[in-house]
Amino acid sequence: MKLRTITVTLAVLLSSAATANAAPQAAAPNISLAAVQADLAQLQSIANSNGGNRAHGKPGYLASVNWVKSKLDAAGFTTRVQSFTNSGATGYNLIADWPGGDANNIVMLGGHLDSVAAGPGINDNGTGSASILEVALAVKATGFTPTKHLRFAWWGAEELGLVGSTYYVNSLSTSDKSKIKSYLNFDMTASPNPGYFVYSASGQPTGSAALQQALQAYFTSIGVQTELTVVGGRSDHAAFARAGIPVGGTFSGAEGTKTAAQAQKWGGTSGRAFDPCYHRACDTSSNIDNTSLDRQADGIASVLWKLAA
Ligand code: DPN
Ligand code: ZN
């Protein structure tokens, strides 16, 4: 981390020396692992006091929305709760806009905030939810003034079939959709036996080579190998891809088994699932690989700063 910070700082100094009159570009912040972990502990505690889950239609879901929203409101985001009905229950998407930037040129980050009914959903998807929350809060904390407009979203009822994200995309006009130039999805970023997967541009109707490459470049910069994966219709980026919006994302693996070659490059245990607690009661705050959690959160910030500066 330290060496990388020094290298980045040097690169920034050199590039600002080369372009003496250009405005300095802020380097992406290092997202605090402790802060992301504290958010996961909070989501676990919300599940504990609400029957053990944060599922669509259950009180733990709305409590999760209200908690994330309060942190964003306090930081100065413009938040909106969009409700919808599914399976006889009201669901909610939380959308947060950072004021300013080019409203016709939007970079959007999202992940689902609901768990399955079987458990608290901490890796799936407390991790993506907490990571984009801390990246959003870092926008405020660092005084980042992006050229592009930033929008963050926490989706409801993903586990029932991408319901919230699909509802959101369908609620947009053609013109609203065309303003979203990139959608990045983070669903499971700290699987206990982690892989480092980047959504393949060629696997999506509108997978974006630029987004794929930006995510790959971050992992290369920290010396971590990646593999491409085709997530297809398994997470919320699919709703955006179907609407023609360029999508990308990362994933640390679910029920799939880590191969010997993958254990060789990433560590962990071959012949074992990336997340043996996927969709189970044991997907708790203990079901997390902290190295993966830390790298992924920093990577989200790195890519956002590059895309939006
Ligand atoms: N859609 C995820 C879930 O919530 O169950 C699992 C998943 C995430 C699968 C990302 C593939 C990629
Ligand atoms: Zn998920």
Structural shape: globular
Largest sheet: 8 strands, mixed
User: How many separate structural domains?
Assistant: 1
Q: Count the E strands.
A: 8
Bound molecules: D-phenylalanine, zinc ion
Helicity, in percent?
Answer: 40-55%
The CATH architecture: 3-Layer(aba) Sandwich
Q: What proportion strand?
A: 15-25%
Q: Provide the spatial order of strands within the biggest beta sheet.
A: 1-2-4-3-5-8-6-7
Determine the number of helices (DSSP H or I, runs of at least 4 residues): 10
What does this structure look like?
It is a single chain. By secondary structure, the protein is α/β, with parallel strands linked by helices. The chain has a single domain, classed as Aminopeptidase (3-Layer(aba) Sandwich), CATH 3.40.630. It has ten helices and eight strands. It has an eight-stranded mixed beta sheet, sandwiched between helices. The longest helix is centred in the middle third of the chain and has 21 residues. The protein is globular. The two termini are 22 Å apart. The N terminus is likely disordered. It binds D-phenylalanine and zinc ion (ZN). The site of zinc ion has 6 residues, from helix 4.
